[in-house]
Amino acid sequence: WRTLRSKPIHLSDVLWQWDNARPHVARSVQQYMESCGVQLVFQSPYSPDFNLCDRFLFSWMKTDLSRRVFSDHNEVREAALQWARGLDEDCLKREVQRLVDHFQAVINARGDYITN
Question: 18 with 42: CB under 8 angstroms?
Fold first, then answer.
């Protein structure tokens, strides 16, 4: 939160998907993000399977970046950006398609719990 307040950002073209973690639902954070023009989209409770990042990106990033030692937040940010830029486009397309297939399976099951 301090980082967001100290450095102005322009996020009006961003669609931001959040879960219901306390930092995400804090009124002050929501008001700040909305003042930046960010459209907030909250995922359904207990459904990390609907979030592309939770499905695979975070675990991949954690595996790759946990082997390194960082001296400050800027190094972490730069490493994360470099990591994201290095993602294989075909792999991302495959994972997005798997997410779409998962959505369709949930729709077909009329919202009931599914495993895949």
Answer: yes
